[in-house]
Amino acid sequence: MPRILLVAQDKGGSGKTVLVRALAECLPTAHLIEIEANRRLVELEDRVSFFPVRAERGEINRTGGAAARAEFDGPLNAIAAAQGPVIVDVGANTAGSLLPLIGEAQARYTRRGVEFGLLVVLTSEPGALANAPILLDLAKPFTAARFAVENQIEGTVDPKALKAFKDVTLSRLEKLSLDERANDLLQKGGLHFIGEDLTAAEDSLTDRFGFAEAGRIVEDLTRFRAKAMQAAGPAARWLEG
């Protein structure tokens, strides 16, 4: 039975794509679907099917959602054709339009043996925190499992607010202080860069930045990769089946 994990947060800058990359590291055989304005998971190469978000939000509102229906035909078809585990990176301002379409097609997906899960990213930023329960509620009717990751990039989430997520599997990505260049590499796919070949990565970084700084970069990215994979672990284990 193909399992599809939707990773969503309509507020940009939540660290959603970092967790998608961590999931990709946890499950090297999983295929990925990226629904974004611009391609971001470039380092994962042919593991990724990219579907650009083209329709303007104003046009979607004007047509009562008709533009959104056609816009998502590509990823909806790709999900229906899945043969194994798939990670779907749902771009910012996109999940609120996509999830209802999946819900409408739930019976048809079920006939194909497709099973859905949802992972929502939480941060202390009010917009992200308010959006998360909305997405979880939208997905509840058609998901077999729901997950939330508290990304502490902007600080810890108020424990009182976390009580609203008691019916989902909750994990945490602790905030880590990274070397400036390590952070730059992370934004360009540093998890894969470190996971692929640590020795080659260190040699390359030493040539560019010197022995001492290369050591700090490798240490920071290796530590961050482990923490991110740990945070994504519960969802990855479900997806693996």
Class by SSE composition: alpha/beta
Largest sheet: 7 strands, parallel
Radius of gyration: 18 Å
**Net shape:** globular
Query: SSE string, helix = H, strand = E?
Result: EHEEHHHEHHEHEHEHHHH
Mean pLDDT: 90
Helical run tally: 12
Strand content: 15-25%
The stretches of 5 or more residues where confidence is low (pLDDT under 50) are none
Kindly report the spatial arrangement of strands forming the biggest sheet.
Answer: 3-2-4-1-5-6-7
Q: How many DSSP-defined strands?
A: 7
Question: Mind explaining what this structure looks like?
Answer:
This protein is an alpha/beta fold and 241 residues long. It is 51% helix and 18% strand. The protein has twelve helices and seven strands. Strands 3-2-4-1-5-6-7 form a seven-stranded parallel sheet, sandwiched between helices. The N and C termini lie close together (9 Å).
Q: TL;DR of this structure?
A:
By secondary structure, the protein is of the alpha/beta class.
List the helices and strands and how they pair.
Layout: E1 3-8, H1 16-26, E2 31-36, E3 48-52, H2 57-62, H3 66-71, H4 73-80, E4 86-90, H5 95-104, H6 106-111, E5 115-122, H7 126-139, E6 143-151, H8 159-162, E7 169-173, H9 180-187, H10 190-196, H11 198-209, H12 211-240
Parallel strand pairs: 1-4, 1-5, 2-3, 2-4, 5-6, 6-7
Helix pairs in contact: 1-12, 5-7, 9-12, 10-12, 11-12
Keywords:
51% helix, alpha/beta, 241 residues, globular
